[in-house]
Amino acid sequence: MKVEQYWEEKEKEIQEKIIHKCLTEYLSGYQNISGPIWGLFFFTKQALYFQTFPKKSWYSSLIWQKENEDWSGDYFNFRLPWKDIRKIIFPKKKSIIKKIFSSPGSIVRLEYLSQNERYILDILFNSDEDIDILKENSSSIVTDLEDSVKF
Into how many domains does the chain fold? Predict the structure, then answer.
């Protein structure tokens, strides 16, 4: 399947236009699922999504198995409606020195409500550009949600 086709099918599945998508690392905060777990992070005007995929076992990769491949491992998907998000904490931009000597990426923290309980979701972004796009778009979405998300 081609990448463009995948995203077209994803938009049909969720019945919304995807505003932005990127590869991120889920760290913690969703239903007691522990990270780190790499996956696709994407968002629409209604919600944030995180999706992982089953992984091929290293053993089947070694023997180049084509039929009945062993796709196992941890994977999960979640949808977090914007209306449930109470606060997003964006990281400060790293100086050039910090970029060189610190671990790669920056953590975005989302505080959200689920069944009247407050949770904190941590996602590691590897690109400042992706964080800027989320920040820019979430502020316009917040206006649509009557300031239910605060920065």
Answer: 1
Question: pTM for the whole thing?
Answer: 0.76
Q: How far apart are CA 4 and CA 7, in angstroms?
A: 5
pLDDT tens for each residue of the chain, 151 residues long: 688 898 999 999 999 999 999 999 999 988 888 888 899 999 999 999 999 877 655 444 444 445 544 444 556 789 999 999 988 999 887 777 777 777 778 999 999 988 888 999 999 999 999 999 999 888 766 533 333 444 4
Best CA proximity match to 69, nearest among 80, 81, 59: 59
Contact residues for 129 (Cβ-Cβ < 8 A; gap 6+): none
In a domain, 8, yes or no: no
The SS3 assignment for 69 reads coil
Beta carbons of 116 and 13 less than 8 angstroms apart: no
Which CATH number characterizes residue 136's domain?
2.30.29.30
Instruction: Please tell me the distance from the alpha carbon of residue 144 to that of residue 104, in angstroms, as a whole number.
Output: 33
Residue with tokens 């949600």: 145
Identify the domain containing residue 135 by its residue range.
15-144
DSSP 85-112: EEEEEPPPPPPHHHHHHS-SSEEEEEEE
